[in-house]
Amino acid sequence: MDPVTVTRGESCLVLAMPHTGTWLPEEVQGALNDRGRALADTDWHVDRLYADLVPDATIVRANFHRYAIDANRDPEGRSLYPGQNTTGLCPVTDFDGAAIYRDGREPDAAEIERRRRAFHAPYHAALARELERVRDAHGVAVLYDCHSIRSRIPFLFEGVLPDFNIGTNGGLACAAKMETAVAEICASANGYTSVVNGRFKGGWTTRHYGRPEDGVHAVQMELAQSAYLASEALPFAYDEARAGRIRPHLKTILDTLIALAKAPATAREA
Questions:
Q1: If the chain, 270 residues long, is cut into consecutive pieces of 10 residues, what is the mean pLDDT of each piece?
Q2: Cα 17 vs. chain centroid, distance in angstroms?
Q3: Residue among 93, 104, 49 nearest 67 (CA)
Q4: What is the CA radius of gyration of the chain?
Q5: What is the DSSP letter of 63?
Q6: How many angstroms separate the CA atoms of 232 and 151, rounded?
Q7: Element (H or E) spanning 194, and its range?
Q8: pLDDT computed for residue 268 by the predictor
Q9: Buried b (16+ CB within 10 A) or exposed e, 182-202
Q10: Which SS3 state, helix, strand or coil, does residue 178 take?
Q11: Rounded to a whole number, what is the largest CA-CA distance in the chain?
Protein backbone atom coordinates (compact mmCIF):
# COMPACT_ATOMS: atom_id res chain seq x y z
CA MET A 1 0.00 0.00 0.00
CA ASP A 2 1.41 3.39 -1.01
CA PRO A 3 1.23 5.67 2.03
CA VAL A 4 -0.15 8.59 0.02
CA THR A 5 -2.19 9.16 -3.12
CA VAL A 6 -1.75 12.41 -5.05
CA THR A 7 -4.26 13.61 -7.63
CA ARG A 8 -2.74 16.57 -9.41
CA GLY A 9 -4.71 19.62 -10.52
CA GLU A 10 -3.64 22.85 -12.11
CA SER A 11 -5.31 25.40 -9.84
CA CYS A 12 -3.73 27.02 -6.78
CA LEU A 13 -5.83 24.89 -4.41
CA VAL A 14 -4.45 21.86 -2.58
CA LEU A 15 -6.86 19.71 -0.56
CA ALA A 16 -5.12 17.72 2.19
CA MET A 17 -6.84 14.64 3.60
CA PRO A 18 -4.71 13.14 6.37
CA HIS A 19 -7.41 11.14 8.17
CA THR A 20 -9.62 9.47 5.54
CA GLY A 21 -7.43 6.39 5.10
CA THR A 22 -8.42 3.11 6.74
CA TRP A 23 -5.47 0.87 5.82
CA LEU A 24 -3.28 -0.52 8.60
CA PRO A 25 -0.17 -2.72 8.38
CA GLU A 26 -0.83 -6.25 9.60
CA GLU A 27 1.41 -5.81 12.63
CA VAL A 28 -0.51 -2.70 13.72
CA GLN A 29 -3.87 -4.32 13.05
CA GLY A 30 -2.84 -7.31 15.16
CA ALA A 31 -1.74 -5.13 18.06
CA LEU A 32 -5.03 -3.25 18.32
CA ASN A 33 -7.84 -4.39 20.59
CA ASP A 34 -11.44 -4.68 19.43
CA ARG A 35 -12.10 -1.04 20.14
CA GLY A 36 -9.07 0.04 18.13
CA ARG A 37 -10.00 -2.15 15.17
CA ALA A 38 -13.34 -0.32 14.90
CA LEU A 39 -11.38 2.72 13.60
CA ALA A 40 -14.04 5.01 15.04
CA ASP A 41 -11.86 8.14 14.80
CA THR A 42 -11.67 8.08 11.01
CA ASP A 43 -12.68 11.22 9.09
CA TRP A 44 -15.42 9.15 7.47
CA HIS A 45 -16.23 9.84 3.81
CA VAL A 46 -14.53 13.26 3.75
CA ASP A 47 -13.01 12.39 0.37
CA ARG A 48 -16.49 11.66 -0.98
CA LEU A 49 -17.91 14.83 0.56
CA TYR A 50 -15.39 17.04 -1.24
CA ALA A 51 -15.29 15.08 -4.50
CA ASP A 52 -15.63 17.23 -7.63
CA LEU A 53 -16.66 20.39 -5.79
CA VAL A 54 -14.20 22.50 -7.76
CA PRO A 55 -12.21 21.72 -10.90
CA ASP A 56 -8.46 21.27 -10.97
CA ALA A 57 -7.81 20.98 -7.25
CA THR A 58 -4.81 18.93 -6.19
CA ILE A 59 -5.64 16.27 -3.60
CA VAL A 60 -3.07 14.76 -1.23
CA ARG A 61 -4.66 11.86 0.64
CA ALA A 62 -3.10 9.62 3.29
CA ASN A 63 -4.05 5.98 2.74
CA PHE A 64 -2.97 4.81 6.21
CA HIS A 65 -5.17 5.15 9.25
CA ARG A 66 -4.35 7.66 11.97
CA TYR A 67 -3.97 4.77 14.46
CA ALA A 68 -0.79 3.80 12.61
CA ILE A 69 0.45 7.38 12.88
CA ASP A 70 -1.35 10.70 12.78
CA ALA A 71 -0.31 12.73 9.76
CA ASN A 72 -1.68 15.89 11.35
CA ARG A 73 0.51 15.74 14.46
CA ASP A 74 3.93 17.23 15.11
CA PRO A 75 6.49 14.58 14.06
CA GLU A 76 8.49 15.43 17.19
CA GLY A 77 5.54 14.40 19.32
CA ARG A 78 4.83 17.85 20.81
CA SER A 79 1.21 18.43 21.82
CA LEU A 80 -0.85 20.76 19.64
CA TYR A 81 -3.03 21.68 22.60
CA PRO A 82 -0.93 21.68 25.80
CA GLY A 83 -3.03 21.14 28.90
CA GLN A 84 -6.01 19.78 26.96
CA ASN A 85 -7.04 16.21 26.25
CA THR A 86 -5.92 15.17 22.79
CA THR A 87 -4.34 12.22 20.98
CA GLY A 88 -0.68 11.93 20.07
CA LEU A 89 1.52 11.19 17.10
CA CYS A 90 0.90 7.45 17.47
CA PRO A 91 -2.36 7.39 19.46
CA VAL A 92 -2.73 4.82 22.21
CA THR A 93 -6.25 5.94 23.10
CA ASP A 94 -9.24 6.93 21.02
CA PHE A 95 -11.12 10.23 21.19
CA ASP A 96 -13.06 8.93 24.18
CA GLY A 97 -9.87 8.29 26.14
CA ALA A 98 -10.18 4.50 25.88
CA ALA A 99 -7.20 2.23 25.11
CA ILE A 100 -6.98 1.04 21.49
CA TYR A 101 -4.09 -1.45 21.93
CA ARG A 102 -3.97 -4.86 23.50
CA ASP A 103 -2.08 -4.89 26.79
CA GLY A 104 1.64 -4.51 26.25
CA ARG A 105 1.35 -3.93 22.48
CA GLU A 106 1.59 -0.13 22.43
CA PRO A 107 4.31 1.22 20.11
CA ASP A 108 7.64 2.06 21.71
CA ALA A 109 9.97 4.87 20.61
CA ALA A 110 11.66 2.73 17.94
CA GLU A 111 8.32 1.66 16.47
CA ILE A 112 7.03 5.24 16.44
CA GLU A 113 10.14 6.32 14.53
CA ARG A 114 9.68 3.46 12.06
CA ARG A 115 6.11 4.54 11.41
CA ARG A 116 7.15 8.17 11.07
CA ARG A 117 9.61 7.27 8.34
CA ALA A 118 7.26 4.85 6.60
CA PHE A 119 4.06 6.93 6.63
CA HIS A 120 4.20 10.41 8.14
CA ALA A 121 7.32 11.53 6.26
CA PRO A 122 6.17 10.37 2.78
CA TYR A 123 2.77 12.04 3.25
CA HIS A 124 4.34 15.37 4.12
CA ALA A 125 7.00 15.07 1.44
CA ALA A 126 4.21 14.69 -1.11
CA LEU A 127 2.21 17.57 0.35
CA ALA A 128 5.25 19.86 0.41
CA ARG A 129 6.05 19.02 -3.23
CA GLU A 130 2.52 19.82 -4.38
CA LEU A 131 2.40 23.10 -2.48
CA GLU A 132 5.72 24.11 -4.01
CA ARG A 133 4.55 23.10 -7.47
CA VAL A 134 1.32 25.10 -7.39
CA ARG A 135 3.01 28.10 -5.76
CA ASP A 136 5.64 28.07 -8.50
CA ALA A 137 2.86 27.99 -11.10
CA HIS A 138 0.59 30.62 -9.56
CA GLY A 139 2.75 32.62 -7.18
CA VAL A 140 0.49 31.49 -4.35
CA ALA A 141 -0.86 28.25 -2.92
CA VAL A 142 -3.96 27.63 -0.82
CA LEU A 143 -3.86 24.59 1.46
CA TYR A 144 -7.30 23.52 2.68
CA ASP A 145 -7.00 20.77 5.27
CA CYS A 146 -10.13 18.59 5.21
CA HIS A 147 -11.30 17.03 8.47
CA SER A 148 -14.38 15.81 10.31
CA ILE A 149 -15.15 14.60 13.81
CA ARG A 150 -18.07 13.46 15.92
CA SER A 151 -20.08 16.37 17.26
CA ARG A 152 -20.15 15.05 20.84
CA ILE A 153 -16.90 13.87 22.45
CA PRO A 154 -16.84 14.77 26.17
CA PHE A 155 -13.21 13.66 26.51
CA LEU A 156 -12.13 16.36 24.03
CA PHE A 157 -14.67 19.16 24.46
CA GLU A 158 -17.83 20.10 26.31
CA GLY A 159 -21.25 20.17 24.72
CA VAL A 160 -21.92 19.98 20.99
CA LEU A 161 -19.32 20.98 18.43
CA PRO A 162 -20.38 23.58 15.82
CA ASP A 163 -20.90 22.28 12.28
CA PHE A 164 -18.08 24.36 10.78
CA ASN A 165 -14.87 24.62 12.82
CA ILE A 166 -12.45 26.91 11.03
CA GLY A 167 -8.80 26.79 12.08
CA THR A 168 -6.17 29.30 11.01
CA ASN A 169 -3.71 29.06 13.92
CA GLY A 170 -5.13 32.22 15.43
CA GLY A 171 -5.00 34.03 12.10
CA LEU A 172 -1.33 33.31 11.43
CA ALA A 173 -1.80 30.65 8.74
CA CYS A 174 -3.59 32.66 6.04
CA ALA A 175 -4.40 36.16 4.87
CA ALA A 176 -6.90 37.91 7.11
CA LYS A 177 -9.34 38.36 4.25
CA MET A 178 -9.36 34.59 3.67
CA GLU A 179 -10.19 33.88 7.30
CA THR A 180 -12.90 36.55 7.23
CA ALA A 181 -14.42 35.29 4.00
CA VAL A 182 -14.60 31.67 5.17
CA ALA A 183 -16.05 32.76 8.50
CA GLU A 184 -18.74 34.84 6.78
CA ILE A 185 -19.73 32.03 4.43
CA CYS A 186 -20.10 29.61 7.31
CA ALA A 187 -21.93 32.10 9.55
CA SER A 188 -24.44 32.83 6.80
CA ALA A 189 -25.09 29.15 5.98
CA ASN A 190 -28.71 28.69 7.01
CA GLY A 191 -29.24 25.96 9.59
CA TYR A 192 -25.55 25.53 10.47
CA THR A 193 -23.35 26.72 13.31
CA SER A 194 -19.72 27.80 13.08
CA VAL A 195 -16.70 29.03 14.99
CA VAL A 196 -13.24 30.37 14.12
CA ASN A 197 -10.24 29.10 16.09
CA GLY A 198 -12.41 27.46 18.73
CA ARG A 199 -11.53 24.01 20.06
CA PHE A 200 -9.76 23.25 16.77
CA LYS A 201 -7.32 25.96 15.72
CA GLY A 202 -5.56 23.93 13.05
CA GLY A 203 -3.32 20.92 13.43
CA TRP A 204 0.34 20.53 12.59
CA THR A 205 -0.35 20.73 8.85
CA THR A 206 -1.99 24.15 9.08
CA ARG A 207 0.58 25.47 11.52
CA HIS A 208 3.58 24.10 9.64
CA TYR A 209 2.69 25.12 6.08
CA GLY A 210 0.60 28.24 6.63
CA ARG A 211 3.07 31.00 5.77
CA PRO A 212 1.16 33.80 4.03
CA GLU A 213 4.30 35.93 3.83
CA ASP A 214 5.80 33.17 1.67
CA GLY A 215 2.69 32.77 -0.49
CA VAL A 216 1.21 29.69 1.22
CA HIS A 217 -2.16 30.15 2.93
CA ALA A 218 -3.58 27.35 5.08
CA VAL A 219 -7.07 26.80 6.47
CA GLN A 220 -8.25 23.75 8.40
CA MET A 221 -11.92 22.84 8.26
CA GLU A 222 -13.14 20.46 10.95
CA LEU A 223 -16.71 19.49 10.14
CA ALA A 224 -19.10 17.97 12.65
CA GLN A 225 -19.97 14.55 11.23
CA SER A 226 -23.61 15.06 12.15
CA ALA A 227 -23.74 17.54 9.27
CA TYR A 228 -23.28 14.85 6.60
CA LEU A 229 -23.45 11.34 8.11
CA ALA A 230 -26.59 9.33 8.82
CA SER A 231 -25.16 8.51 12.25
CA GLU A 232 -21.99 9.25 14.21
CA ALA A 233 -21.71 5.57 15.14
CA LEU A 234 -21.04 2.37 13.25
CA PRO A 235 -21.39 1.99 10.32
CA PHE A 236 -20.84 5.77 9.91
CA ALA A 237 -22.97 5.78 6.77
CA TYR A 238 -22.85 8.68 4.33
CA ASP A 239 -26.15 10.57 4.14
CA GLU A 240 -26.76 11.82 0.61
CA ALA A 241 -29.41 14.33 1.67
CA ARG A 242 -27.37 15.85 4.49
CA ALA A 243 -24.23 15.89 2.37
CA GLY A 244 -26.17 17.46 -0.48
CA ARG A 245 -27.17 20.36 1.76
CA ILE A 246 -23.69 21.14 3.03
CA ARG A 247 -21.72 20.56 -0.18
CA PRO A 248 -22.80 23.86 -1.81
CA HIS A 249 -21.42 25.77 1.17
CA LEU A 250 -18.15 23.88 0.94
CA LYS A 251 -17.98 24.66 -2.76
CA THR A 252 -18.52 28.35 -2.05
CA ILE A 253 -15.68 28.26 0.48
CA LEU A 254 -13.27 26.66 -1.99
CA ASP A 255 -14.30 28.91 -4.89
CA THR A 256 -13.86 31.96 -2.67
CA LEU A 257 -10.41 30.93 -1.48
CA ILE A 258 -9.29 30.43 -5.07
CA ALA A 259 -10.67 33.82 -6.08
CA LEU A 260 -8.96 35.56 -3.18
CA ALA A 261 -5.68 33.84 -3.97
CA LYS A 262 -5.83 35.26 -7.49
CA ALA A 263 -6.14 38.83 -6.15
CA PRO A 264 -2.80 40.58 -6.82
CA ALA A 265 -1.89 41.39 -3.21
CA THR A 266 -2.86 38.09 -1.59
CA ALA A 267 0.52 36.39 -1.86
CA ARG A 268 2.07 39.21 0.17
CA GLU A 269 -0.62 39.58 2.81
CA ALA A 270 -0.40 38.11 6.26
A1: 96 98 97 97 98 98 98 93 90 97 97 98 98 98 98 96 98 98 98 97 97 98 98 97 98 98 65
A2: 5
A3: 93
A4: 18
A5: -
A6: 8
A7: strand 194-196
A8: 44
A9: bbebbeebeebbbbbbebbbb
A10: helix
A11: 57
